[in-house]
Write a structure and sequence with these properties.
204 residues; alpha/beta; Helicase, Ruva Protein, domain 3; Dna Topoisomerase Vi A Subunit, Chain: A, domain 2; 2 domains; two-stranded antiparallel ribbon; 40% helix; elongated
Length: 204
């Protein structure tokens, strides 16, 4: 593969780092690096320090695994949220997508992945035990399975259904406004909101 020659080793290293990000090719990485070179030094330092602070200071909620500045995230600590409903999602991005719809006022449980034997991810690698403990606490009445409709997502949903079916809670899934194989983060807010609003009982 063709690799551009750079007049500066420092520039090349910056391009290497930018291009290591998902969705950023080397041409885009070069454009970003050159853009930063045009900025005042204090702006660039603020830009870099924000990511250092993020990496060092961000926490994961002790309840739902959402990113937070505190040990308990703003959703879990919000007394106005409906604590009888837990929406199970794969990733933090899914929480942000659902929150943007304005259609859901319950709580979340972020798995941080889905069951995928091909990738070496089994049930024991996900916080499923913690989800079960939350459900059997007595306050939860409904669990919404809002995972991707890929084969791995469906497998994970089925596994969670089997684990939770004896707890007495209602287990639902989002409506199929989200197409098979789609990730929630790429679904438009209107469709995603309607999919949550029109959820139905989980069936297999």
């Amino acid at each position: 593969m063709f690799r551009q020659n750079y007049s500066s080793v420092l520039l090349e290293k910056a391009v290497d780092e930018f291009s290591s990000l998902p969705g950023i090719g080397r041409k885009s990485a070069l454009r970003l690096a050159l853009h930063l070179l045009k900025q005042p030094q204090e702006n660039v330092e603020r830009f870099g320090n924000s990511f250092i602070a993020l990496r060092k200071g961000v926490k994961y909620c002790n309840v739902c695994n959402m990113i937070s500045d505190e040990n308990i995230c703003s959703v879990c600590s919000d007394s106005s949220r409906d604590r009888s409903i837990i929406c199970v999602v794969e990733s933090i991005r899914d929480v942000l997508s659902i929150e943007n719809t304005g259609q859901y006022r319950g709580l979340y449980h972020v798995l941080g992945g889905i069951i995928s034997p091909m990738d070496g991810v089994g049930p024991g690698d996900l916080p499923i035990k913690e989800l079960t403990e939350r459900v059997v606490s007595g306050e939860v009445k409904e669990v919404i399975l809002a995972l991707s409709t890929s084969m791995e997502g469906e497998t994970t949903s089925f596994y969670l259904y089997k684990k939770l079916s004896g707890t007495g809670v209602q287990i639902t899934t989002i409506a199929r406004g989200v197409g098979f194989g789609d990730d929630l983060e790429y679904t438009d807010e209107l469709t995603l909101g309607k999919s949550i609003e029109n959820r139905h009982l989980f069936k297999f």
